[in-house]
Amino acid sequence: MITLRGATKRYDAAVAVDHLDLEIAPGKVTGFLGPNGAGKSTTMRMIMGLDRPTSGEALINGKPYAALSHPLREVGALLDAKALHPGRSAYSHLLAMARTNGIPRKRVEEVLGIVGLEKVAKKRSGSFSLGMGQRLGIASALLGDPQILLFDEPVNGLDPDGVRWVRELMRSLASEGRTVFVSSHLMSEMQLTADHLVVIGRGKLLADDTIDRVIARSSLTAVRVRTPDVDAMDTLVRHLEERQLDVQRHEPHECLVSGATVESIGDLAFELGIRLHELRVVEASLEEAYMEMTANSIEYKSPTPASADAGLDRIHQEVEA
Amino acid sequence: MSSTAVSTRAPAARQGRGGTAGAIGAEWTKLWSVRATWWCLIGSAALMALFAPGLGVSMANSNRSDNVDTDIAIAHPMVLAVNMVQFAVIALAMLAITTEYSTGSIRTTLQCVPVRGRMLFAKSAVAAPVMFVVGTLLALVGTVTTAPLLFEYADADLGKAVPTIVCTGVYIALMGVFSIGIGAAIRSAVGTLTTVFMILAGLPGALALSSSDFTKKILDYLPSTAGQHLMDGDTEPYGRMGALLVVLVWVAASQIAGYIVLRKRDA
């Protein structure tokens, strides 16, 4: 269990993390999302005791990281695959880590086997490719066989095979009842890996919910209504708007209604005697839901045409198309 | 590599292991698993084998040309050589902390040993004995290679030479611990080297040029001057115990500075 209570990190005037309250529960993969500069890495560094919160606290099983007597056996983390001496071999790097926590030498060979690096274990880690470095980082996270694991962008630099391997690893760690907290920029990857999502923007919590609910809450998740009768559609839209629902009509025969259920619209159409040819939920993708949620908290906006707002318009049009 | 993830359980490790002993073990592993350690050792041995006999020969020569027959303690040229050679040895201890910051591995180290003071202690606890052994061996090499070159001026009193050799080991060990404190406080390799060099060589060099009594007094209390008194076993301005105390105060100050910075600043 990872707990954040009002965790805040301030650098001079800038607030990196702003009163974050979170509980990351065991037994599932919790995805950690947010635009660049949202405070994801700072949050993870506070959990790992590398950054001291300006106020509030970050706890592991109820204790601050530095109070853990054998931290590697409770928490494993891949925060930065390059946090090692490039001249040291993978084996020596892991052995030094193991010794600090009284982990037997045998376990070093074991984790090297798990990540598939046993053949290059005695080579200078500086000669490793990005993917191999990432695997070594994962090996160091698994070293103490911890119940809590943190991964910051674990699939960075991995080939498709490696990406799938990491996904399966996360799933299997969570299925063993461990807490898995993983940050990523890849929404499609998160949709496949995570059960639960935590989204932050500008250091503030934007969402802490299951993937299904995050998608359902998005205004881009809408009900599409189609009827052959344009006059009937006019009537239906008028009634829907009287109920304060957001209706978008880009075609005479069609409209998109957000904030209403299929059932309520179906009942309304029945009452009004309107013939429907289509009535279904158009789900936003996780990426769309995420983009909508973080549109206002993007630190480094790209210039047009790919600005956040333009991107959102594009998404609306795609949903409607 | 692409096989399904198997996250086998680690064998139940005995609780209680790890801690300070574990941290020290890890620092030992880290020290001997990088090439820089060996370069520093080879470099310092080469420098000592060059400087100590060189200084010995020139001291004997000047005795000869000035027609004085004061004896030269066989370990004394080596003590003077330590002024240069020490930097190659100290680099060893300095790198143990500064490369952690330059490579980013400090983040891994502090994940393993989150108690800042324990990490600093472990580094110092490994550096001190290693550098004591290295310093003593270097002193031995320096003395043995120098002694025959002093010819008729050699004062081969082992009662003087042996304590000098051992005290050289002690001085080098303490300077290693001193540099680790400075390294923890300053973090950058260049900044640390510059600071250590200024305190051990630059400052004494500059003060030695002055003729005022006050600056001469300050000079006596700098770590490298005190170190020379410690190794040579002088009686003025203080004896070996006094010299040791002066060096220890410097070591304590640097360690405290390093600890404060470690506690205050994020990794």
From TrEMBL, chain A:
InterPro entries: AAA+_ATPase, ABC_transporter-like_ATP-bd, P-loop_NTPase. Residues 2-227 form the ABC transporter domain. Signal peptide: none annotated. It comes from the Bacteria. Belongs to the ABC transporter superfamily. It comes from Streptomyces violaceorubidus. Keywords: ATP-binding, Nucleotide-binding, Transport. SUPFAM superfamilies: P-loop containing nucleoside triphosphate hydrolases. GO terms for molecular function: ATP binding. The keyword Nucleotide-binding applies. This is ATP-binding cassette domain-containing protein.
From TrEMBL, chain B:
The lineage of its organism: Bacteria, Bacillati, Actinomycetota, Actinomycetes, Kitasatosporales. It comes from the Bacteria. Residues 1-20 are annotated as: Disordered. This is ABC transporter permease. Signal peptide: none annotated. Keywords: Membrane, Transmembrane, Transmembrane helix. The chain crosses the membrane at residues 38-60, 80-99, 120-141, 161-182, 189-209, 241-262. It comes from Streptomyces violaceorubidus.
